[in-house]
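Predict structure. Chain length: 194.
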Amino acid sequence: MTRHLIVMVKEPRPGRVKTRLGKDIGMVSAAWWFRHQTRALLLRLADPRWQLTLAVSPDTQGQTSRIWPAHLPRLPQGTGTLGDRMARAFRSMPPGPVCIIGADIPGIRKRHIACAFKALGDHDATLGPAPDGGYWLIGLKRTRAVPAGFLEDVRWSTEHARADTIATLGPLTLTTIDTLRDVDTAADLPASSG
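Prediction complete.
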């Protein structure tokens, strides 16, 4: 079965992407950072071991955007919370393991993605923790039904996001992989390079 790596992306428009970072460094600079960070991440993570797919927002603009590589498949994120959008992405993919990441993790490398897919060999789900209580990756093997309520009532952008997500996994077995830092504010920038 094909492994699928979904990268959640937004059009890098000032004031619409990385707004917490934008409060620190300016909205134009934050959008510029996200655009270049995402481009580098997509180049770095291209690999024949998995199919790279973009989950785009806004739906219509993202489907036709020339900012992202034209050869990558795209699916619309749709409406709702981050949990609604990620759950929809998991359910919309063909059979096989799926991992979802954000594009704001400068430290991510192919070895981290390979580790996540390997972890799904023995477990139903995997998480890549972030130091702030969230996570940079969530993966599902998808050989068992996705539990009802999956990713509902998660307190996103708080220190509770990871624990709340784990609570929605129900009977699925879980393992964690490496901890990586995402970029939310200017204070995250120096610590996340590399």
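Summary: The chain has a mean pLDDT of 94.
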